[in-house]
Amino acid sequence: MEISLDVNGERVEAHVQPRLNLADFLREHLKLTGTHVGCEHGVCGACTVRVNGEIVRSCLMLAVQTHGASVETIEGLSDSGEVADLQAAFRDRNALQCGFCTPAMLMAAQDLLKQHTDPDREQIREHLSGNYCRCTGYQAIIDAVETTARLRMERQP
Amino acid sequence: MTVAAANPETLSVLDRPNSYIGKVVPRPNLERLMQGRGLYVSDMELPRMAHVVFLRSPHAHAKIIGIDAGAARRMPGVIAIVTGKELAAVVTPWVGVLSHLKGLKSAAQHAIAIDHVCWQGEAVAAIVATSRAVAEDAAEIVSVEYEELDAVTDMRTALDPETPVIHPSLGDNLAFERNLDAGAVDAAFADSDEVVEADFIFGRHTGVTLEPRAVVADWNAAEARLTIYQGTQAPHMVQNLAALHLGLEESQVRVVCKDVGGSFGIKVHVYADEMATYALSKLLRRPVKFVADRVESFNTDIHARDHRCKGRIGVKRDGTIIAFEIDDLTGIGPYSMYPRTSAIEANQVVNLVGGPYVTKNYRARARVVFQNKNVMCQYRAVGHPIACSVTEGLVDLAAAKIGMDPVEIRRRNLIADDAYPCASPSGLRFEQLSHHAAINKLMAMMDYEKLRAEQAALRNKRIQRGIGIASFIEVTNPSAAFYGVGGARISSQDGVAVRLDAQGSVICQTSITEQGQGSESLTAQIVGSVLGVSMERVRVILGDTDNTPYGGGTWASRGAGIGGEAALQAAKVLRKNILDVAAAILQSSSAELDIVNNAVVNASDGSSRIDLKELARIVYFRPDTLPPGIQPELMVTRHFVPREYPFAFTNGVQASWLEVDTDTGFIKLLRHWVVEDCGTIINPQLVDEQIRGGVVQGLGAALFEKCIYDERGQLTNANMADYLVPMSGEMPDIDVGHVVSPTSETELGAKGAGEAGTAGAAAAVANAVNDALKPFGVVISEIPLTPQLILTALGRI
Lengths: 157, 797
Hints:
The structure holds two protein chains of two kinds.
Chain A: E1 2-7, E2 10-15, H1 22-29, E3 48-51, E4 54-57, E5 70-72, H2 74-80, H3 84-93, H4 102-115, H5 121-127, H6 139-155
Parallel strand pairs in A: 1-5
Antiparallel strand pairs in A: 1-2, 3-4, 3-5
Helix pairs in contact in A: 3-6
Chain B: H1 30-34, E1 50-56, E2 62-68, H2 70-73, E3 78-83, H3 84-87, E4 116-117, E5 123-129, H4 132-140, E6 143-148, E7 174-182, H5 185-191, E8 194-206, E9 214-220, E10 225-230, H6 235-246, E11 253-256, H7 272-284, E12 288-291, H8 294-300, E13 303-315, E14 321-331, H9 344-352, E15 362-369, H10 384-402, H11 406-413, E16 422-423, E17 429-430, H12 435-446, H13 448-460, E18 464-474, E19 494-500, E20 506-510, H14 519-531, E21 538-541, H15 559-586, E22 593-596, E23 599-602, E24 608-611, H16 612-621, E25 635-640, E26 650-660, E27 667-677, H17 684-703, E28 734-738, H18 756-772, E29 782-783, H19 787-793
Parallel strand pairs in B: 1-12, 8-29, 10-11, 14-15, 20-21, 27-28
Antiparallel strand pairs in B: 1-5, 2-4, 2-6, 3-5, 7-15, 8-13, 9-10, 9-12, 13-14, 16-17, 18-26, 19-20, 19-25, 22-23, 23-24, 26-27
């Protein structure tokens, strides 16, 4: 099937099989390998991307469903600088070890911070519960998101 | 921190000016991982690359009668369908035994099963196609005829005469047995005021690395060379084994390890499907990629634990523990894993039980049996959680029996901090441990007395909270005693090469590997500190057998202690060589010079003499201006292996504070504390995060994680929805403290920290649950502590 969509602000026209999922489309067709595939059944969250501003699990969405949509991946969020402060907080707090879950974790954290400017630790833990991390034990991630929220609040007039 | 003295050679690297040792500095490799610019094997593509999918046995135990792949072979995009018999012409089978584990036996394992499948998930055919999707489509129409055999699933009956023998050539299903009898155990039990015993049960679980195992193998027939891209902890081990079984020289095999999406011991082995992928590349003369899907991961990544351990403790009324005894049984699947074997965990359990305590009376038996389940082998903190849970569970039971506080009984029995060096009843040699300092620090961190008061107050409100304590010892920095003496080609030494490049920056090649622990960072910290070069000028190269010195890699908490020491020694020599050149250029003596902040300075007053960039320019481009007879050596390689102590033991103690809902059986973790002693701390943040991550893996085993097999050997929860791992919402904050007892075997003084968290977490939680349930008079000695288990123990269901 022919699809036409926006990926990280660039127009993409592609011919894809109906069964192709969005994660494989991004990784194999567009070579956007920052979106990771951990379980391929919608549990681990490693494939989280943004479609029309909402975070979704790209392994549970078909590429054809994004026809006409705007898709954003970690490459886009990094290049635009949208999550630069969050990334800096992750770096300073060593909130990643192997890094496999990290792009999606940043996606989910940014999603939370857009909805809640001042989340408490429980809210952060709850919001990130759909993103598995096997290395860190989560605490450093929670710290980094909490720090970012505080710094963003302080920057607001 | 001391100021630079007149002679910097008298300062240790820890004291040098601008040292990075002991500092929190960000890891250099984080940016690419955060921006999605990492390169995991699952991301890799090569020209002409084909994809392999393995057709796997649906039966736990069966004979293969025939395989019909005719229709599948004709599908567009299918390149080859290869059976075990066909692949055996390219790759030889292996037997996972080590000579120092006396009596350990196993059967020959093939890359793909030939006529006998021994677990659900064993590969029976390889389907190679132009894409993974095409290969999966083709796999569906390959038909395999099986004759199902009785499956051996229950480890308790595996040795019964009426149970089928999985490998008839071995005679029985016993892989390994070890017996130990130290001191005077019978007399000690007879002399005890109280003897308490319990049966401890540990669920089978697995590592669930977020990136599944992945390999790209690229046989270049024109060069007669195989390049293996693999997320592995031990590249040189993989190089050796691939060469051995494919009939190649090691020089014909290069192993490259880029970013690795989690390992935890899962990726330190060589799996049959990985060996098959190497062989397929050679057979088909093109790159072949294998990435396990999640169901395959559950069915084929090594499983761990799965022990049933009967334990007994003898105690005097004054709290003196006078004997331990265990009888451990573990089921390892149908083959001892290659090359590290599946007997190491049971062997560790025998080694470690009772390890923190003074008593010399200890008897142990461990039996390791075959069964028709997935293979089982070393996963993070090998044997430690079993040994710690049994030991600390027994200590708590003994304390309860004589009415003593759990902390008090430990204080009375832990080996005194000034009693070292000494040895355990099982022969482990301890250089310097700090159990008492650790437990004292823990008490202060958690405010133990206040917590006990809070617990008592809440009991009156029918809120059941518990405190659990667990002391432990931890095996780190293994020497050749771990594997080398048993004949495995697994290096226990590591090497580091450092060189000053032509612009005064440093390139450092190390044989340890990075899976997120911070190997790259700690190497740069050490090299930068010793040389006097800022960290951003140090580039670390690892994970490439063509481009690093030979070494063991990163496993068993050895990277910092062994690889770090090699880095220190190499940097020391390079520093001396730089100063010798500088002295020649400056017509000074090297004793009068130092390197600080990327420049050679006067040692006496710190004034700058020559920038390293300028020194490098002269050495590389104007050597004609150097005095005659000077040949600078600005590249240095050094290796290190521990020789004095077979292992650098560390120690620690953990505590859990939790609440049990006696109506639902749910456990809420409220807080967790760890105090550990890894010797010199190179980067406190990296150590703390290793501990926290390790704790959470231990908490997963304690509460959630279990591979559930039915009686026919079918794994019933081989997916992430049904196999539960810890999520952020249910994990507590974890406070980490340190005691520092450097090992004197190295100048660096670092011991490992990777196992500590996992070693004691489950024991602390189990003890806390039993503490919470004390009013109900029940004791649970099984993990995972599921709501069902809790409610059953309480008689609610």
